Amino acid sequence: MREFWKEHSKDATVEEMMLDSRAKELTQHELPEILSLLPCLTGSRVLELGAGIGRYTGSLLTLAGHVTAVDFMESFVERNRQDNGHHSNATFLQADVTKLDMPKNSIDFIFSNWLLMYLTDEELKSFAEKMMGWLRPGGFLFFRESCNHRSGDFKRGLNPTCYRTEAQYNHLMTSMEVDVQEGGQMFGFDIVLKKKVQTYVQMKNNQNQICWLLEKVPRSPGTQNGFNSFQQFLDNQQYSNRSILRYEKMFGAGYVSTGGPSTTKEFVTC
Fold first, then answer.
1. Cβ-based burial of 48 (10 A; exposed 0-12, middle 13-18, buried ≥19)
2. Residue 17 or 188, more confident
3. How much of the chain exceeds pLDDT 90, in percent?
4. Is residue 24 part of a domain?
5. Boundaries of domain holding 34
6. What keywords are assigned to this protein (predicted)?
7. Is the pTM of this model over 0.85?
8. FRET label pair with 23: which of 41, 57, 202, 264, CA 20 to 30 Å apart?
9. DSSP string over 78-144
10. CA triplet 12, 15, 21: central angle to 5 degrees?
């Protein structure tokens, strides 16, 4: 991974960081779109992971109480510090995020853009549990990833990226539970928002740039008909393979919703 980014961080440009020749044009439209999806950050303690050269850092600093921007490439961290170091509420760290350590319940909001796709499934599971611990109860995690296939047009020899599906991220992030408080209270992530990045849909006809907003919430076994969350109920019962086959047997192939034809059409075409 480090060798890959050494090759693509020599000049610390936005084109290198995004691996795309249209990076400046895309950023002009994408940045306000992404920022519009974030919760209110006034006074918040923000942890920006995989901050790169600071494409989002400057905006986050104007919105939040404090931002800790982390990246593992020294050239990117230095460029970010040069551009945004004049802010008094900024901290810049060069670190491998999988080895990062933060106090429990010390962060209000975690922001990550194109980071998780560079982790293996095992690394992601372990790292997601760490992020859960860092967030306070009710805190939020925002992340955006390239799903299914790559998006940038830069040529690459080695490509260590893991292009997961939306469903894989949904399952990995919402199925885990972590005991992060004394007394045995379990916490998990609920999906608040999930959507395609419209800038990429409109400018590149690419529907595989997906972003999520998750909230850290307490888990109480048995509150959802024996399931720990409504999402877990949907995944394991309502829309399990067995249940979908039952719907198809009753209503026809491709019918996955009890909400009627219009809802089914919305589900299978999105």
1. buried
2. 188
3. 51
4. yes
5. 2-220
6. Methyltransferase, Transferase
7. no
8. 41
9. HHHHHHHTT-TTEEEEE--GGG----TT-EEEEEEES-GGGS-HHHHHHHHHHHHHHEEEEEEEEEE
10. 155
Give the residue carrying structure tokens 């691996």. Answer: 19
Is residue 266 in a domain?
no
Instruction: Write phi, then psi, for 184 (nearest 5 degrees).
Output: 85, 10
Statement: residue 20 has pLDDT above 90:
no
Using alpha carbons, select from 95, 89, 134 the residue that is nearest to residue 111.
134
Average pLDDT of span 193-218: 92
DSSP state of 240: S
CB–CB of 29/199 below 8 Å? Answer: yes
Stretch 261-266: mean pLDDT: 52
Q: What is the tens place of the pLDDT at every residue in 175-185?
A: 888 876 656 78
The share of the chain scoring above pLDDT 70, in percent, equals 68
Rg of the chain in Å (alpha carbons): 20
Sheet containing 107-113, strands listed edge to edge, beginning at the edge strand earlier in sequence: 90-94, 66-71, 45-49, 107-113, 135-146, 209-219, 186-196, 178-179
C-alpha 193/C-alpha 191 separation (Å) is 6
Task: Assess if residue 138 is contained within a domain.
Answer: yes
Q: Which two tokens stand for residue 133?
A: 């611990």
pLDDT above 90 for 35: yes
- CATH number for the domain spanning 73: value is 3.40.50.150
Total domain count, the chain:
1
- The per-residue b/e assignment along 117-130, b for 16 or more CB within 10 angstroms, e otherwise, is bbbeeeebeebbeb
